[in-house]
Amino acid sequence: MPVINSIADRKDEIAAWRQELHRNAQTKYEEVYAGDLIAKKLEEWGIPHTRGFAKTGIVATIEGQKTDSGKAIALRADMDALDIQERTGLPYASCNEGKMHACGHDGHMASLLGATKYLNETKNFNGKVHLIFQPAEEGGSGADKMIEEGLFKKFPCNYVFGFHNWPTLPVGTINMRVGGIMASVDEFEIIVKGKGGHAAMPENTIDPIVIASQIVIALQTIVSRTVSPIDTAVVSVTNMNAGTGAFNVIPGSARLHGTVRTFSNDVRHKIKERMESIVGNISKAFDSTIEIDYIFQTEPTVNTADGIAIAAKAAALVVGEKNVDTNCLPTMGGEDFGAFLIEKPGAFVFIGQGVANDPHCHSSMGLHHPNYDFNDEILPIGSSYFAALAETYMPLET
Ligand code: NI
Fold first, then answer.
1. 262 CA distance to ligand 1 centroid (A)?
2. 252 C-alpha vs ligand 1 centroid, how far in Å?
3. What is the pLDDT of residues 152-181, one digit of tens each?
4. Which fold would CATH assign to domain 5-182+299-393?
5. pTM of the predicted model, to two decimals?
6. DSSP label at 119?
7. How far is the CA of 249 from the centre of ligand 1 (A)?
8. How far is the CA of 228 from the centre of ligand 1 (A)?
9. Ligand 1 centre distance from Cα of residue 195 (Å)
10. Where in the chain is CATH 3.30.70.360?
11. What are the residue ranges of helices labelled H in the chain?
């Protein structure tokens, strides 16, 4: 079975919603335009919903023709754009200066709306479907905020599902894996406080540049010597700032700033501890003072085996079994859907949107690129995948 026919017939309508959302891009916790558009559609279709979840989020519920299975699933789309100046030159390019849907969240929302309309008309399932429109995925912890505000207590469910469009995968393919598919994203800042002075008399200083350099090198041993080779992790120092520009002055302090990525909370905590120990001991060795701020930002996105079993079945119905890779490589990029997967089993998958032989078209551009655009050709796939999850997990006839 390819994409659901009645959804395919509606591709232009769904694409019009997507392009309207694209034109009116807003960033974290300011997604008011998207919220209004979604709420208007839900009202039009008579679907009960709650606004104001995590400020700009919305949750709606559709009951199937029967609900005696007692089952429920949650389907999630993220809503926010990025602080990027769009350069696509498309007729529906963002009208908001410096704000752009460069990650395709406009397409995720439109796909979920398409599924919502279909599921509400057909109700071809036994149970409930909760539709989660989540704000602030891009560094705003919108998923955590919705959970804190009682998302799964108010809308209990057995599984939660989401997807991201993937420019490096061709249209018509869906990739997934059991376990970690996207990494945790943490941030660290290290301030080395030494003693500044004349560059010609280093004996009277505590040189923070030399100390910071030792730290950068020592941090490289965390992944190579502390983390098991079987696990995966990244420790990257991305900023190193010290000095005022003068060639003959040793500054009083230096700053290191960077990120840590892993697929497991155990590894994450181990890295934090090791980083504190390395920094503390180097500080002692050089008689300096060091402040370290380690910020746990985004959980790893870890799919459960039972969630992937449901996702694989639904994906195969839409794009065919041979076009579903159930053991794809993970990515070290981050995604806050991981917070939902800590609360509930489920799956996060990648839906291909790349176009072969045209690597420079907007759909094949990397995510967060100013020339990127969501590929409207995959809207029927996204909507059908969401709908198939409900119909597969909660069939009317058993
Ligand atoms: Ni994204």
1. 18
2. 40
3. 999 999 999 999 999 999 999 999 999 999
4. Aminopeptidase (3.40.630)
5. 0.91
6. H
7. 44
8. 29
9. 43
10. 185-298
11. 5-8, 11-23, 32-44, 105-122, 142-148, 151-154, 208-221, 265-285, 305-319, 338-343, 379-393
Query: What pLDDT, on the 0 to 100 scale, is given for residue 371?
Result: 93
* Measured distance CA(137)–CA(248) in Å, rounded: 45
- pLDDT at position 9 is 86
List the chain residues with pLDDT less than 70: 1-2, 359-360
pLDDT for residue 1: 44
Distance from the alpha carbon of residue 80 to the mean position of ligand 1, in angstroms? 9
d(CA 362, ligand 1 centre) in Å: 16
Residue 81 Cα to ligand 1 midpoint, Å, equals 9
**311 alpha carbon to ligand 1 midpoint, in Å?**
19
Report the first-to-last Cα separation within the chain, whole angstroms. Answer: 19
CATH 3.40.630.10 positions along the chain are 5-182+299-393
3-class secondary-structure state, position 207 = coil
- In CATH, the number for domain 185-298 is 3.30.70.360
